[in-house]
């Protein structure tokens, strides 16, 4: 069984709504930007390991949005305490996807310490995440995603991946002021559809009508 | 990052700032989110009272650089936050502050207890190397900072917070004397 990263990301795309925030790092970020460019992609995490903490800040400050974090295993090992912090912070809107390729891919593909034995699913569960699962097969991931995303967070999904197609690494863009500004504008442009309404088309239409009327009155 | 085995120097005959007043001024500045790693200088006078204050949400983090990212991310929808820690943790987080606060121009506001500092001695003249170097390090990084020691020093807190958010840049309050809870 092998799970290519680009296939895993493609499987996730249909589950990401226009109102969701996606925090992505390193090759997962570059692949995601190519596969699903959108203004609510948050790409400026600054320092290696910090994606999960940015995601927590966004989840706390935006409780009416789901926040997905596309993290790396080497990155998470630099900020393992964030698992405990996230689990203790009371956020039910955070969904943590960990691309576990067991190497520092963009830094020469050197192996992680403990690459063969580290159990990220167990770590997340032990830290207190509401749920944790591992996926190493595309069909298994496709079948499991609805269940993961219908459960309250924080949820950890460990994706045991191989590289797949690699998209260009545009570091200038992810560190650019333009990327941060487009995210900021999108985040503040309109109120998101309430989370409870997302999965129900009738409720979603009603909510959209309500917010449109409210915003018109406020303007 | 705490420093085991070191204790808070006992106050001499100097006045200390009021923790209650600092909390009131933080709220006056529109802050409702506190992110913290415990620090012995601010523990009794600030962090414990904050932890019991229903108007403030306290997020306890395992390591200080988590807090830099959390506060930076919160700022995207203008949610104001303060990161509390001691100077050892701030030193451990300099790369995150550099990237997120300075390179990305985000308003990360920090309140940093100067652990190991004699309350009666200005930090630049401290016998403790870990205290003496703090302001020069912040100056070298071109970071805005201000010192809170005397009771009246707290008055600038709301303006400094608002200025950091208006300019979208970090600011660091250095707490040189342990605030009293009242």
How are the secondary structure elements laid out?
The complex is a heterodimer of chains A (about 220) and B (about 180).
Chain A: E1 3-4, H1 5-12, E2 21-24, H2 26-35, E3 41-42, H3 51-61, E4 67-72, H4 73-77, H5 81-88, E5 94-100, E6 103-104, E7 110-111, H6 120-127, E8 131-135, H7 138-150, E9 155-162, H8 171-174, H9 177-189, H10 201-218
Parallel strand pairs in A: 1-9, 2-3, 2-4, 4-5, 5-9, 8-9
Antiparallel strand pairs in A: 6-7
Helix pairs in contact in A: 1-2, 1-7
Chain B: H1 19-28, E1 33-36, H2 43-51, E2 57-60, H3 64-74, E3 81-86, H4 87-92, H5 94-103, E4 109-113, H6 129-132, H7 134-140, E5 144-148, H8 157-167, E6 171-175
Parallel strand pairs in B: 1-2, 1-3, 3-4, 4-6, 5-6
Helix pairs in contact in B: 1-2, 3-5
SSE series of chain A: EHEHEHEHHEEEHEHEHHH
Low-pLDDT segments, ≥5 res of chain B: none
If helices are DSSP runs of H or I spanning 4 or more residues, what is the number of helices of chain A? 10
The number of strands of chain B is 6
CATH fold naming of chain A:
Rossmann fold
Distance between the termini of chain A: 54 Å
The CATH architecture of chain B can be given as 3-Layer(aba) Sandwich
Largest sheet of chain A: 7 strands, parallel
Supply Rg of chain A. Answer: 17 Å
Mean pLDDT over all positions of chain B: 94
Looking at this protein, list some descriptive labels.
heterodimer; A: 219 residues; alpha/beta; Rossmann fold; two-stranded antiparallel ribbon; 45% helix; 17% strand; disordered C terminus; B: 182 residues; 8 helices
Structure report:
The complex is a heterodimer of chains A (219) and B (182). The C terminus of chain A is likely disordered. Helix content of chain A is 45%, strand content 17%. Chain A has ten helices and nine strands. In chain A, strands 1, 2, 3, 4, 5, 8 and 9 form a seven-stranded parallel beta sheet that branches. Chain A has a two-stranded antiparallel ribbon with strand order 6-7. Chain A has a single domain, classed as Thiamin diphosphate (ThDP)-binding fold, Pyr/PP domains (Rossmann fold, 3-Layer(aba) Sandwich), CATH 3.40.50.970. Chain B is α/β, with parallel strands linked by helices and 182 residues long. In chain B, α2 links the parallel β1 and β2. In chain B, α1 crosses α2 and α3 runs parallel beside α5. In chain B, 47% of the residues are buried. The interface between A and B is medium-sized, with 30 and 29 residues.
């Amino acid at each position: 069984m092998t799970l290519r990263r680009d296939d895993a990301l493609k499987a996730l795309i249909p589950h990401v709504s226009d109102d969701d925030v996606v925090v992505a790092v390193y090759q997962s970020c570059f692949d995601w930007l190519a596969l699903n460019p959108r203004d609510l992609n948050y790409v400026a995490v600054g320092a290696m390991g910090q994606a999960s903490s940015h995601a927590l800040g966004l989840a706390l400050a935006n409780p009416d949005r789901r926040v997905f974090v596309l993290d790396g295993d080497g990155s998470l090992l630099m900020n393992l305490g964030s698992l405990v912090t996230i689990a203790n912070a009371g956020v039910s809107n955070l969904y943590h996807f960990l691309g576990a390729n067991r190497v520092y891919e963009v830094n020469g593909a050197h192996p992680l310490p403990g690459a063969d034995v580290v159990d990220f699913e167990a770590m997340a569960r032990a830290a207190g995440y509401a749920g944790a699962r591992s996926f190493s097969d595309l069909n298994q991931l496709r079948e499991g995603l609805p269940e993961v995303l219908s459960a309250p967070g924080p949820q950890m999904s460990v994706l045991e991946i191989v590289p797949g197609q690699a998209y260009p690494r545009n570091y200038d863009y992810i560190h650019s002021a333009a990327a941060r500004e487009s995210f900021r504008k999108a985040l503040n442009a309109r109120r998101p559809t309430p989370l409870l309404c997302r999965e129900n088309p009738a409720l979603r239409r009603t909510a959209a009508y309500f917010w449109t009327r409210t915003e018109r009155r406020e303007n | 990052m705490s420093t085991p085995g070191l204790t808070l120097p006992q106050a001499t005959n100097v006045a200390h700032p009021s923790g209650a007043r600092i909390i009131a001024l933080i709220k006056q500045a529109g802050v409702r989110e506190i992110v913290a790693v415990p620090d012995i200088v601010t523990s009794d006078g600030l962090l414990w009272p904050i932890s019991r204050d229903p108007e403030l949400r306290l997020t306890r983090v395992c390591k200080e650089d988590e807090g830099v990212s959390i506060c930076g991310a919160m700022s995207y929808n203008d949610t104001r936050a303060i990161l509390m820690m001691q100077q050892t943790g701030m030193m451990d987080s300099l790369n995150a502050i550099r990237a997120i606060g300075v390179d990305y121009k985000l308003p990360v506001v920090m309140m940093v207890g100067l652990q190991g500092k004699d309350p009666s001695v200005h930090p630049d003249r401290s016998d403790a190397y870990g205290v003496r170097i703090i302001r020069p390090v912040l100056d070298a990084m071109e970071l805005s900072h201000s010192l809170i020691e005397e009771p009246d020093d707290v008055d600038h807190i709301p303006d400094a917070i608002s200025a950091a958010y208006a300019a979208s840049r970090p600011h660091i309050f250095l707490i040189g004397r342990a605030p009293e809870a009242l």
